[in-house]
């Protein structure tokens, strides 16, 4: 059956994206609109991103997004173009690729033969002319010319309940369906959309409303304050630490250099109190903060911060090692944890199928490597390798690099990847249990050397406990295979976190794991204080009945929370 002749009963014109079970008023609104457009027909369009520039893609996507066209005799029918995220679900595939070989690398050939595969001009002309065009002149691949013609949606001549011909076709964006998550596939491959920072304000009480760059005009002051913040953390003074984190977040968004001239304005910003003002004045006159200098010179700070660099050692264990066992150096820690004996023994008894657990002795042995920063190119290579292994398990998995990389950091401390599946109807099943399957596979390839058990990850590492969510994840130690072009290049162990998210959690997982930590914290605070909602990486839910509101893109997360969109490079609210 031609797509144009198919009535799609699932089609709704809701303006939100709440999951089933949303409020009665919203349900009523959906039904009202549904009723008036009964008989509307959809063409589902999938746009292949390869060979399209980002701008071109975004422009095409905008053209196709829930665009209503008129069809049929006296243009009485209504056809709605709907973007979809998988070629399987599409009626039309729009591509800039012309060569069969290249196209086959992107879309399964058998699948393509069942679709109309057209050039972007089809989309442009159909929208400009206000009616879907015959495909003949737009076939993208020579060998698919015939099947494209066969599968081309025919103009609808007898649309039931056709709209009145006096009515102009709707050309405004009609929001996607409510229950299925519509994947915005370009976001998976291209850079995230930019935000308009003039709509944000550094005066806000919430980090998630301020533009916070990677490096701010007062970065040196931030770094001096961060030493005091870290010291409070090491001493277990959580509230004091948070107070410094909040002040640092405020300064990160303050766009002016703090000088005698701007000090007055600075003093009125949120979370800037007397203590901060004293320290800032010190900094302005001396070039450093006195307390920072004292902390940096202390043996206690040096040892505790060294110890907490070892994966698995949090502040309270570090204090015990220092206070109770009298340890001061990493060499002493090596002896204390009997690193050589334990790691060697573990290697001898390693299970060939199951990656060994990464514990403190292993972390100590690899400490120097794991503390090396990871350049963006290596972050990308790690992502590519993970994705190619997933592809071998089953096609359709998608992955986004999140964490500091997504916020624009040139060098990361670890690699964070959120993984989903592009077929919304089966994604949940395809994600469940994937963590184990994938890590085993990567272990057998020698790429993953260890995994952290989630329980040991929970405490006492404060950084992580605060971020805990119920998403499935694999926290791994990873090493890229030898570089064939440069076999002598050193191979370095890296920390790689893989986060697995079903469609209803995918975009909140992306936002949550993109951070920064304080930005994410304030999204939660904002949702709670202002919207009666609960936000975390797992999803957004009503506080009163725990019903989930599903986001269909990163921007949608902000929209649901009633916030201006902030692109990742402006979410650097931490150091
Ligand atoms: N996160 C959080 N709360 C925490 C720790 C982390 O919300 N207590 C979120 C925000 C972080 C993201 O998880 O951006 C990833 O955590 P990382 O520790 O990997 O931090 P980054 O990726 O931001 O920086 P880097 O890995 O370079 O240190
Ligand atoms: Mg990270």
UniProtKB/TrEMBL annotation:
Biological processes, Gene Ontology terms: DNA replication; double-strand break repair via nonhomologous end joining
Uppermost EC category: transferase
Region listing for Disordered, in residue ranges: 1-33
PROSITE patterns per the UniProt record, alphabetical: BRCT, DNA_POLYMERASE_X
CDD domains in UniProt: NT_POLXc
Protein name (database record): DNA-directed DNA polymerase
Active-site residues from the entry: 279
Protein origin, superkingdom: Eukaryota
SMART domains: POLXc
Spans traversing the lipid bilayer: none
The reaction(s) this protein catalyses: DNA(n) + a 2'-deoxyribonucleoside 5'-triphosphate = DNA(n+1) + diphosphate
UniProt family annotation: Belongs to the DNA polymerase type-X family.
Record field: compositional bias (Low complexity): 14-24
Gene Ontology cellular-component terms listed: nucleus
Enzyme Commission numbers on file: 2.7.7.7
Residue stretches making up the BRCT domain: 35-140
Keywords assigned by UniProt, alphabetized: DNA damage, DNA repair, DNA replication, DNA synthesis, DNA-binding, DNA-directed DNA polymerase, Lyase, Nucleotidyltransferase, Transferase
Any GO MF annotation of the entry: lyase activity
Record has DNA damage as a keyword: yes
